[in-house]
Amino acid sequence: MSSGEINKKRLFSTDNQISKLGFENSSARWIKENSVLIALAGQGKTRGTVAINEISLTSNQSIAAIEPDDTLDSGFLFQNLGKRYEELRLASSGDGSRGGLNKQIISDIKIIAPSIKEQNTVGSFFKHLDDTIALHQRKLNLLNRLKQTYMNALFPQNDENIPVLRFVVFSEPWEQRALKEVSERVRGNDGRMNLPTLTISAGSGWLDQRERFSGNIAGNEQKNYTLLSKGELSYNHGNSKLAKYGTVFALRTYNEALVPRVYHSFRTTDEASADFVEFMFSTKRPDRELAKLVSSGARMDGLLNINYDDFSEINIMIPKIDEQNRISDFLRKFDETITLQQQKIDNMKTLKSILLDKMFI
């Protein structure tokens, strides 16, 4: 009986696991532990990705597995090939954007290696560094999840006026207010065009246009930009994957800056904290109100059809100013801790990159 005539039922055992016969008649193959794996195909940045497996596993033809012999340390090989990620991608096609790697390309890769003893030492050193980076990344992920948990608890759920978690000195119910009752619009500028020109990223907040777009993209429109002062806010009513109904950020990193006129810019009154308003919008609690204002989705330029007057009339739930400040201070400390943790990870990754350049030929 040919492989094409094999009864498919025989390829799987009664518990729906692939049988020995099924394995033998599939493209899967067994890969020993401590093999170095290379993705031969894939979209985006997948192709050329290098990994090392700590346990035995199976894979198909889209993964190349290299099992080092006694003259080559798997940890050393993993770091060597990982450092050459762009080289692997470019080897698969002229510009690295299409095509795929294959076994011939992989087998032609030249590895310059020292003695096996030195390879072991180098591989162990970088494994320890990778483990440390992974540990700090897990801590960062935990901090982000913990912050999100606190935010969900510190702000009331929809239709409620008391949060689940509260500082003990506060007990009064929160009040529903129209945003315009605790804010006023900011627009226009005083003609100074040498101020930082900023844009809002849903994931990163305020960014200098020169950093995000490698230049100031305002052009002639800059004369119409809004002059924003420290502590004032802007609502970018652009639709994105991270912020379906836009996002609000307060200006903190500059004393003054120019921001696009299409943003709805405003300042809070003495009854509201700018930081609190920013955190409140990041909880997505106001999204239900914003959704009511969207009549026809996003425009061609990606902006939601929400004008300032309608935006300012949305209802928000806020406590007294003292409680707003306590919540904001608490969450801001979380942000500072998260930023420091991210900087640690970035610094270690930079150090690893420098060491790879110096320790590999």
Brief synopsis:
With 361 residues, this protein is of the alpha+beta class. Helix content is 37%, strand content 16%. The protein has a 4-stranded antiparallel β-sheet. The chain has a 3-stranded antiparallel β-sheet with strand order 3-2-5. The protein has a two-stranded antiparallel sheet with strand order 1-4.
Structure notes:
- The structure is a single chain.
- This protein has helices spanning 20-24, 74-83, 85-92, 103-107, 116-154, 209-213, 274-282, 287-293, 308-312, 321-359; strands spanning 29-31, 36-39, 50-52, 57-59, 63-66, 175-178, 183-185, 198-201, 205-208, 226-229, 233-236, 247-250, 256-259, 264-268, 315-318.
- It is α+β, with helices and mostly antiparallel strands and 361 residues long.
- The strands form six sheets. It has a four-stranded antiparallel sheet. Strands 3-2-5 form a three-stranded antiparallel sheet.
- β8 (198-201) and β9 (205-208) form a beta hairpin.
- Mean pLDDT is 86; it is low at 1-14 and 94-98.
Strands, helices and their partners?
Layout: H1 20-24, E1 29-31, E2 36-39, E3 50-52, E4 57-59, E5 63-66, H2 74-83, H3 85-92, H4 103-107, H5 116-154, E6 175-178, E7 183-185, E8 198-201, E9 205-208, H6 209-213, E10 226-229, E11 233-236, E12 247-250, E13 256-259, E14 264-268, H7 274-282, H8 287-293, H9 308-312, E15 315-318, H10 321-359
Antiparallel strand pairs: 1-4, 2-3, 2-5, 6-15, 7-14, 8-9, 10-13, 11-12, 11-14
Helix pairs in contact: 2-5, 5-10
